[in-house]
Amino acid sequence: MLQSVNFFKSSFSTLVHISKPSPTTRPRLTTLVTVGVSATVLLTVLSLLILVDHFALNYARREAQQRLQQLSWQMRDALNGAVRRATGDVQLLGSLPSVRAARTPAEVRQALESLQKTFPDYAWIGLVNPQGKVVAGTQGELEGADVSGRPWFRQGRRALYAGEAASAAPAGQKLPAGAEPWRFIDAAGPLMDADGNYSGVLCVRLSWGWMRRLAQTMLAPAADQQYAAELFVVRGDGTVMLGPPGSEGQQIYSDSLTMARSGASGALKESWADGRSYLTGYARSGSADDAATLSWAILARQPEEQALSGARALERQILLLGAILGAAMALAAAIVTRRLTRPLNELSHTIEARLATPDAVPTLPAIQPVDTFHEAQVLSRALAEMLRNEQHHLDALRGLNERLESTVAERTREIARKALQLERALGQEQSTQQLLQERAAELRAILDNAHDAFIALDPGGVVRDWNLQAEKLLGWKRSEVIGQPLAAMMLPLPLRRAYERDMRQLADSADGATTVLSRRVELTLHNRAGQELPVEVSLAYVPRSSGHLFIAFLHDISERKQLFASMEELALRDTLTGLPNRRALMKTLPEALQRANRSGQACAVFFLDLDRFKQVNDRYGHEEGDELLRQFAQRVRGAVRKTDTVGRLAGDEFIVILEMLGSDAAAQEAADKLLPALRQPFTLKTTSVTLSASLGIAVHHPDDPQDIEMLLGRADRAMYRHKQQGIQQRARR
């Protein structure tokens, strides 16, 4: 009887897969979940910190450098604009009749003081005779004084000149003492009389106060935003002309200053003499070859720690938030896990007590049902039912064991062995069927959610399967195409015969199938609406017990085709004017020459150059220059025939290709029609300008050699001859 009890106890332990407690203590599920959640949050926070350190700091540094570079550009443009205004006022004064033909110094003084009232930053304006004696000056200052030794007089006799004043006071004027040193800029130029003869020098002395006000205005937004940016205006010898308190008059040396002197502009990270690391934007004003400009370096710097303070604060916030989030999630995980594992712990304690029961005990301890959640409820009921069944069998065995102990034991062992084998066989068969069903469902889900269209065909080309993407791509529902021949539905007639021939070859030879299926092909199919659809097709050969199948994957390449076409179109267009660019012209011109040879009629090439475009660009800015080029291109396009080609070669140079010309005179007539249209005023955003264009003509006859470079060179030389003739005509006027 005791042997039977031991047998059923061992059978119960095997069925529920429970062994006696191991002497090695394992971690609890609550601990494992809490540690896992904490580690996940920690890794997430560390990853965010690495990303912030790598990207946010670099982004903040680039933004600060770009801001400082723009600040140096603004200061450079303001300095250049002030100098240009001063030299322009010198030219304006020289052109005034009241100055050129004045009879007395009082008349000249009146004109000079009128300009000084308009621009209070002009500390002194004077007129000097050819011998260097001041004829007239504002407020009568220095009248009669000899200034022949001043740099502005020596340089201003020949051309416009701008430079720093040699003395601190304007023309000897006594200035009040202040917290900052007085600085001035002299702008001078020659004065010509009505006959064009040299009659003296005009000088305008510009005070440095405007530059200080401009620097304060530029730095005011930076100060409000706590950027701590500083501006430096540095002379050619490294002396600071304008800068933070205590730096003016000092000489500095830095990499940014060296780059600015070379004419470059940009921003970099560098260490200054105070040992701190700064982000510095740099630029150079004026031109070293132009005496009418100031070739000074403009530096805008900011401490690196100040520029990156926002990114550092973001790192600290992420770290604090991650710590708080990690602690909260770890606490929540511990509470939730403890609550979820409570019924499992109760079951485990009951089972451990059951396993610890001595073999001689006639009644097994009962397992109480657990009603917390479904899985624990099912498990507790199953275990309780198994224990009841076991107790029933034990009671029956106790009654039979007295008479048939050996027989029952042997039969019981045999039944248990057979039942276990049968259960294993049934379980294996059920698992196999379930696995096949799952695999079939997975395959159908994969095919239905694939990005490419899927079609399965039998050896006769009849559709046997069709996924959702095929329905979307081709328009036919799966129920409409199953059992239908593929070629008759979507292949054009020229491809249908080749398709039927290939299908016969594939059906007859497996080697042929391997050769065809080893490559991808592009085809043009017809969808249900009759529209052409470019696709990329890849085939697969699937052998089966009752024959074989051909599997085709179709990928829509319409967007790829459109992308290639748009990229080719963009590569042949000028982004500013929308006209064909140099590459397109070099492609179009040979085709035009070939058409001229075939038709027996001449073609011509116009080489156009916009006169004085650089002056407009320098005076009004690049945006106005770009607008002028766009209007110029539209005007050229509107003045020629629609069949003619107009393109932009580079800068302000344009090419016009005229075809089907009856004679050389037709090209000249087109040019005579084009040039007057280009001399009409151009209305820009802030001003209106009137310019002219230089035009060179090169005619290609059908018997001429097809040399593009020679034809363009002829048109270019003709354009320059036209430009020189225009310059000579303006000079004679």
UniProtKB/TrEMBL annotation:
Name the predominant localization: membrane
Q: Which SMART domains match?
A: GGDEF, PAS
Q: Which PANTHER family match?
A: BIOFILM ARCHITECTURE MAINTENANCE PROTEIN MBAA, DIGUANYLATE CYCLASE DGCP
Report domain PAS positions. 439-510
Coiled coil is among the record's keywords: yes
Signal peptide from the UniProt entry: none
Sorted alphabetically, the keyword list is: ATP-binding, Coiled coil, Kinase, Membrane, Nucleotide-binding, Phosphoprotein, Transferase, Transmembrane, Transmembrane helix, Two-component regulatory system
- The domain of life for this entry's organism is Bacteria
The chain positions of domain PAC read 519-569
State the protein's name.
Answer: Diguanylate cyclase
Positions of the GGDEF domain: 601-733
| Lineage, top ranks | Bacteria, Pseudomonadati, Pseudomonadota, Betaproteobacteria, Burkholderiales
Amino-acid biosynthesis as a keyword of this entry, yes or no, is no
Per the record, the coiled-coil ranges are 387-414
* Localization: Membrane
From the record, give the transmembrane residue ranges: 29-52, 318-336
